[in-house]
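Moderator note: this is an archived Q&A kept for reference. The question asked for a predicted structure of one protein chain; the sequence and the answer are reproduced below.
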Amino acid sequence: MGRRKYSQEELASIFHRSGGKCHLCLKPLVFEAYGRTDHPSGWEVDHSRPVTAGGSDHRNNLRPAHPSCNRSKGTRSSRSVRAENGFARSPLSTEQREQAVRDNTFGGGLVGWLAGAGLGFGPIGVVGAILVGAEVGSRIDPDQQR
């Protein structure tokens, strides 16, 4: 059975399903390095549920993975491989990640406001605490929160 060819649109959709990360090890991938086994951030399309285990070529079953991660996964489930790597779930999609960063930024700012007001920093100190809290919140990796 030959390898399926994917359009650039399909590849972009698959790539962004995991926010540009390997869905098995959560390390970054480079979109332009698709199909490159010689590139450290190269990637290929992996069937989350292997075809040999009843998986299909349906879009929901396709995820980006480093070639080495995909090879070491073999016919095991993605969930079991991620668990071995210490991750409970696949990485967030690009859209989910953007929303989580917005939520974390807001939450960090809220915590900063509460801390600044509660500690009596004064108006300027409260604004500073909000800004620091928002900055800290925006730097939290949503994939590591779950």
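Archived answer notes: The beta strands are 44-47, 62-65.
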